[in-house]
Amino acid sequence: MLVQVERHAPALLTDAAAVRIRQTQVDATAYNWLPSLKLSYQADIGTNNNLPGGYFSYGIVPGNSRVQTDANASTLLTDLGIAAFSWEICNFGAYAAQRNVASSDMEIEQARLSLSRYKLQAATIDNYLRLCQLQELLTVQVNNIARNEEIKRSIEALATAGVRAGVDTSIAEAELSKATLNYIDLHNMLRRTQLQLSALSGLDTGRLIADTAVIRQFPELLPPIDNWSADAANNPFVLPFELSYKNSLNRESMVRRSYNPKITLDAAAWSRGSSLTPTGDFRPLPTGFGFERNNYLVGVGFVYNIFDLKRKQLQLRVQKATTDYVARQLQEQRSALSLQLNSINADLATCIQRLQLIPLQLEAANAAYRQKLALYRNGLTDILELNAAINLLYRAETDAILARYKYSETLLQRVVTEGRLQELVNLL
Q1: What sections of the sequence does the record tag as coiled-coil (predicted)?
Q2: What is the pTM of this model?
Q3: Of the candidates 166, 172, 169, 165, which has an alpha carbon nearest to the alpha carbon of residue 145?
Q4: Which fold has domain 2-32+91-261+305-427?
Q5: In the chain, what percentage of residues exceed pLDDT 70?
Q6: Where are the domains of the chain?
Q7: Which range is least confidently modeled, 64-73, 247-256, 322-331, 376-385?
């Protein structure tokens, strides 16, 4: 069933898609080191009527390399082909920091997927235990109906013989109807639980019949309570917070390294053609097509922005505040789990005390019912006292089932809280 739940649950499919997104981001980040190689070609027609003098082009002043002695507005044609290569060969760990952040982002998504799967497994097992409980309660209710039917038949026989008043028959009929109505309500609750499990697993409700022996064996599958120890290292409730803290530390490292100096390897090769000769003669425009001069340039560059020192300081301050916030969330989650475990331990102690008293309650209720039934058949007690004994026995049988279920449910809560659900699944 757990395998079916994992395959069928829509929430897990959505979380798995989120993990795949993070994986593609990791793959993309791994190629941040790729260099830049740009190829360009242009053919231009215009004038070359230039004067000397410096200026800032702001990217909108066309380049014009030759200064004319005299003004000349003749038209010329030029073409230019460029291959430019630039590679940031060293940035002192910035690439590695980016990869670490991307990897930790993916680890967080994987932890969230694992937590969703973990919660779904816990909910499935809890619903299964609930199904076991309802099936046992239905069995008890069937037995209760059978007892009421037996008493009704005895009363009808006694009333026919004139030993008992006819009103006893009416009271017995009312008790039988009440027991039947309780059975209908329990069957409806069982049906709803089956529908919930069917929605989780995709299995047909007709196949969802629980093995009621599980609820009895469940406590025996686990080691003694005193020998339990929480799996703090891999607790799925804590792991996303731990990975978020690790991710925040990685982001601090990335901030530090992103403002480091950069060493680049640059190279370029270009060719030019022009209808203007080096001596300043304007040739026919078609002569501007075709490359006439070829050049190349190779160099190593070192770039560092002095004001990045302040920028790095400010960004680090923001990221460290985020890290502190995540660390407090992690501590809060650990404290909450510790408090929850203490509460579960207190509940377990109460459940154990109830289980110890249940056999005494059942034995006493059974004895009272048998005695009252014998007394009633001999005319020594009335129908009201017999009904009280029946209800006492029914309550004792119901309490026994509820006590076992409560104990099993509390054990499950502890196993889930301690992050040891997979051990239980393997045992089951």
Answers
A1: none
A2: 0.79
A3: 172
A4: Outer membrane efflux proteins (OEP) (1.20.1600)
A5: 87
A6: 2-32+91-261+305-427, 36-89+264-303
A7: 64-73
